[in-house]
Amino acid sequence: MNTTLQQWVDQPYRHGFVTDIETEIVPKGLNESVIRMISAKKDEPEWLLDFRLASYRRWLTMEVPSWAKVSHPPIDFQEIIYFAQPKPKKQLDSMDEVDPELRKTFEKLGVPLHEQKVMAGVAVDVIFDSVSVTTTYKSKLAEVGIIFCSLSEAVREYPELVKQYLGSVVPASDNFYAALNSAVFTEGSFCFIPKGTKCPMDLSTYFRINTEGSGQFERTLIIAEEGASVSYLEGCTAPRFDTNQLHAAVVELVALDYAEIKYSTVQNWYAGDENGVGGIYNFVTKRGMCRGVHSKISWTQVETGSAITWKYPSCILLGEGSVGEFYSVALTNHRQQADTGTKMVHVGRHTKSTIVSKGISAGRSDNGYRGLVKILPHATGARNYSQCDSMLIGEACRANTYPTVEVRNETAIVEHEASTSKIGEDQMFLFAQRGIGQEEAISMIINGFCRDVFMHLPLEFAVEATKLLGLKLEGSVG
Amino acid sequence: MKLLEVKGLKASVEGISILRGVDLEINAGEVHAIMGLNGSGKSTLSKVLAGHPSYQVTGGEVLFNGQDLFELPPEERARVGLFLAFQYPVEVPGVSNSAFLRLAYNTIQTSRGKDELDPLEFDDLVRERIKVVEMDPAFLDRSVNEGFSGGEKKRNEILQMALLDPKLAILDETDSGLDIDALRIVANGVNSLRSEHNAIVMVTHYQRLLNYIVPDFVHVMDAGRIVKTGDKTLALELEERGYDWLRAVA
Ligand SMILES: Nc1ncnc2c1ncn2[C@@H]1O[C@H](COP(=O)(O)OP(=O)(O)OP(=O)(O)O)[C@@H](O)[C@H]1O
Ligand SMILES: [Mg+2]
Predict the structure, then answer these.
(1) What is the CATH number of the domain that holds B85?
(2) Which residue in A has a C-alpha nearest to residue B166's C-alpha?
């Protein structure tokens, strides 16, 4: 085993601190009265409470999915705190004011909450445990008719929109964790881009889990009307705890005629220690519906954290000529497990999808790509191209791919390419023999391996992803 | 001036002893050829000198410019002017050849106290140097060695030599895999890089390379030792008689 490589992937987690802030929680455990309590705390309308309760009842009838290649002790859903909200130390003057303690936390995480300091031209919705802390640039976006706020606020201010779209792409009945999320979701972001509007800046949400024992159940809803376009970024971190924490999110995207949604994630939840103690269980349902003709939804993800990742950002290509894309980098180390991939369901004619997946596994980790390309009978002229590459670092890790293709229209063209490689000693030696130090060599090899994905990240996030690699590289050579 | 002194070098891989006492001296301005049967240890010697981590040095010493070579990690050996053209160049998917060449070039330049080149300046330089091996500049935009033919990989190695301007270049079977025209081109390229300040070691099985790059010394390796050293006529004799007569001696 190449020690440098191992040192590089073994970089300590930089976001593992806990913010000392008084927190208001709903007692752990899940039952109808907990759901009513969450709904009451959020002052929700009746229809939403009904949505939650119906989802809860549905969830009770469902089984924990067992098809993914991940293993963990059974989760005790009665041991989880479903709602945690930071209590401000002093009375704040306005809704928009942020507790200084929280402000400091996010500054430490590199997410300053002052609009002036925020990465140039990116609006951020900041979510801490179960609540949204602040949303920047809200009023500026409102000038062009864009709604960008927390989901709770959207429920208050734009109930009709939320009612129309919530659960329309991922119904509660979709899967076990989607049902759970639908019952107890606490916060998330809401974006609405009206007809013909190009969002003038990237929108982003930063998720932070802070309270031990709490779960995070965010729910994000993005709607792009006819001819609208938006680029949305999602980042996440959590403290280092010895217990596992559940993160079961649902993200729904809707693209109408000629609309375009680009959704990018850098996931850096706490991954547990080298023996697999602690870390986030990241069980997420993300799906986009290309409802309109020539609409386009593009998922780009860089998954580096979490003890277990179970996540398949997908596209339903309904509209004629619609396009779905999935670009993914998943890095696992130690005992991390990732079972991630995508589903592309071609319903409409001349729909197109592209899948590029890069898995990097190190330590004793398990890294799997699972994909489904489904061409339905009406999808005449549908096309898919898939490419799945795995890179192994060391001897004890595993990489698997489970691509499934179902073609029910004979005019479809489906292509699949796969490769497995190793950062070998010989590659490292080539760099050394040309005078290049180990850190630079590894970073160049990994960046090269991920290039087809990184080039699809918005500039701000490409920098972020490179920084994440940089952070992991720092001090790795003694 | 003595550039390289190898004295009683022993090395092993995974506990198997491969080099069993190699002695070799190389002065600036010289060209040496190392020949010998498959598996006799020629590549092992090259890689041990360059510092490949799979090999353990178990005895002897090596001075490079009077400095203990084994004190230096592999990248430092490259920076002080030791270059190895690999027998089997590895592919590095996704890493553009030009970015790789520029990083290597700038690293070596920096270590020599010279200025780095920005991408545009480097592009001018590399397009100039690439003429040495008559390679199509399109190879600069491809990933390092990925999908290169055997001969193209070898030319890419010599391009690196041309850029990095080493004091001692070890060319491990650079001739194998080259077609007849390419052999001539690459050999001429190597000749154009020769000077009284540097030295070249060619590991080869064939006389035809030595027709183009005429060696001052020819060494024969067998079972981890240099068993015979002669001038360029030794290579011709080997071509005629094979290795058996030497093995009997050893
Ligand atoms: N990593 C390794 N593991 C096991 N054996 C090795 C390793 N590297 C080299 N050897 C052995 O060492 C011996 C010398 O190998 P080496 O590659 O140096 O030969 P060579 O003289 O370059 O041969 P060729 O002319 O075929 O290139 C061979 O028997 C080879 O099998
Ligand atoms: Mg050899």
Answers:
(1) 3.40.50.300
(2) A434
pLDDT in tens, A84-135: 877 655 555 544 566 777 677 767 666 656 654 444 456 777 777 766 667 7
Residue numbers of the domain that contains B132: 2-249
Q: Taking CB atoms and an 8 Å limit, are B83 and A433 in contact across chains?
A: yes
Cα A328 to Cα A266: distance, rounded to the nearest angstrom: 10
DSSP state of B27: E
Q: What angle do CA B104, B110, B115 make, to 5 degrees?
A: 105
Binary contact (B75, A440; C-beta < 8 A): no
Please give the distance of CA B211 from its chain centroid, rounded to a whole number: 18
| pLDDT for residue A40 is more than 80 | yes
Beta bridge partners of B59: B10
Most A CBs within 10 Å, among B79, B92, B143, to test the A interface: B92
CA distance A296 to A39: 34
Sole residue written with tokens 């197109």: A352
d(CA B86, CA A447): 24
Its pTM stands at 0.79
- Across the interface, do B143 and A448 touch by the CB < 8 Å criterion? yes
E strands in A181-228 = 189-193, 202-208, 219-224
Q: In a 3-state reduction of DSSP, which class is residue A33?
A: helix
How many DSSP H helices and E strands does chain A contain? 11, 23
* The total number of structural domains that make up chain B: 1
Three-state SS at A80: coil
Pairing of strands A323-332, A383-392: unpaired
The residue with tokens 């932070």 is: A208
Q: Give SS3 for A384.
A: strand
Q: β-pairing, B217-222 with B31-36? A: parallel
What are the chain A neighbours of B54 within 8 Å (beta carbons)? 425
How crowded is residue A21: how many other Cβ atoms within 10 Å of its Cβ? Answer: 17
Residue B144: its H or E element: strand B143-144
CB B217 within 8 A of CB B230: yes
Separation CA A49–CA B176 (nearest Å) = 75
Token pair listed for A402: 């489970």
Write down the pLDDT at residue A463: 67
CB contact A444 to B (< 8 Å):
yes
Instruction: Please give the angle made by the CA atoms of A428, A434 and A436, to the nearest 5 degrees.
Output: 65
The answer to whether residue A258 scores a pLDDT higher than 80 is yes
- β-bridge partners, A279: A244
What are the distances in angstroms from CA A239 to CA A13, A25, A273, B192? 9, 18, 12, 60
Contact predicate A428/A2, CB 8 Å: yes
In degrees, rounded to 5, the angle at the alpha carbon of residue A8 between the alpha carbons of residues A2 and A14 is 155
Helix, strand, or coil (residue B54):
coil
Residues 100-139 of A with CB under 8 A from B: none
pLDDT one-digit tens code per residue, B22-77: 999 999 999 999 999 999 999 999 999 999 999 999 999 999 999 999 999 999 99
- At position A77, the amino acid (one-letter code) is F
Q: Exposed e or buried b for every residue in A186-202, given b needs 16+ CB within 10 A?
A: bbbbbbbbeeebebebb
Best CA proximity match to A102, nearest among A127, A130, A83: A127
Q: What is the ipTM of this complex?
A: 0.96
Is the pLDDT at A284 greater than 90? The verdict is yes
B54 lines ligand 1 (CB under 6 A): yes
